[in-house]
Write a structure and sequence with these properties.
The chain has nine helices and eight strands. The protein has helices spanning 37-44, 70-83, 96-108, 138-164, 175-185, 190-202, 206-211, 233-239, 257-272, and strands at 3-5, 11-18, 21-26, 48-53, 89-94, 113-119, 216-221, 243-248. It has an eight-stranded mixed beta sheet with strand order 1-2-4-3-5-6-7-8, sandwiched between helices. Helix 2 (70-83) crosses helix 3 (96-108) and helix 4 (138-164) packs across helix 6 (190-202). It starts with a strand and ends with a helix. InterPro entries: AB_hydrolase, AB_hydrolase_1, AB_hydrolase_fold.
Length: 273
């Protein structure tokens, strides 16, 4: 397996497919790099170098007790980029991975990065506060914590339904896809999973977004039941200087079928621009 070792001794697993301009993928919670396989294969088949890593605590990376927060996630991404000596890279983040990408840009700058894609991403802030009335109440995230703690296997099986919109009339989401979601989710360490819930829901990315000085594609389904578009993409595009918004009508959080095809087309167009 391909891994890097971070300064604190964690091993971060990554895939490295193809050659050309690097496109670095950051996955959502509670998944791993495999969630990006379709897009990694797509871009590698179109002359790019696709790199996708498992966030610490997830998949094949180290299940560290500490460091399961956005600053460390961003620092791990920075170490991956630096150790592979990537330049002119495009960062692509889904959900929590979009937070990781945003914090990386705010914390490490854009010297090595030329573009970014935020898909169904958690910024600016998921949690409802006085300053963020569009966010979700803390009870929502406490419920996620309770579900993971009580019976994480069943919780992940149930979560796959709203994640892919399988609970919507007319949805065609295969059982195989839901099983794959469960399998990836079960690879997350319990401590890592619980810490990451706090990281993706309570981290405020407002200042990170304001600092971004590269083109950003902000893509989001307008029927996202996991990261509602109103508190996320619609606010993000107001904060990023050079952002383009793409919305997918009736699309869920995890894009499938025609929704995924639409995003893939937009991704290739953005990479080629």
């Amino acid at each position: 397996m391909s891994t890097i070792t971070t300064r604190d001794g964690a091993e971060i697993f990554f895939k490295d497919w193809g050659s050309g301009r690097p496109v670095v993928f950051s996955h959502g919670w509670p998944l791993n790099a495999d969630a990006w396989d379709n897009q990694a294969h797509l871009v590698a088949s179109h002359g790019f170098r696709a790199i996708a890593h498992d966030r610490r605590g997830h998949g094949r990376s180290s299940q560290t007790w500490d460091g399961n927060h956005m600053d460390q996630y961003a620092d791990d991404l920075a170490e991956l980029i630096e150790q592979l000596d990537l330049t002119d890279a495009v960062l692509v983040g889904h959900s929590t991975g979009g937070g990781e990408v945003t914090r990386y840009l705010g914390r490490h700058g854009t010297a090595r990065i030329s573009k970014a894609v935020l898909l169904g991403a958690v910024p600016p802030l998921m949690l409802r506060t006085a300053a963020n009335p569009e966010g979700s109440p803390i009870d929502v995230f406490d419920g996620i914590r309770a579900g993971v703690t009580a019976d994480r296997s069943q919780f992940y099986q149930d979560l796959s339904s709203p994640f892919y919109g399988a609970n919507r009339d007319g949805a065609t989401v295969s059982q195989g896809l839901r099983d794959a979601f469960w399998q990836m989710s079960m690879q997350v360490g319990l401590k890592s999973a619980l810490d990451c819930i706090k990281a993706f829901s309570e981290t405020d990315f407002t200042e990170d977004l304001k600092s971004i000085d590269i083109p950003v594609l902000v893509a989001h389904g307008d029927d996202d039941q996991i990261v509602p578009i109103g508190a996320a993409a619609l606010q993000t595009v107001k904060l990023v200087k050079d952002a383009v918004l793409k919305t997918y009508p009736r699309a869920p959080h995890g894009l499938v079928g025609d929704f995924e095809k639409a995003f893939n087309s937009d991704l290739l167009t953005f990479l080629a621009a």
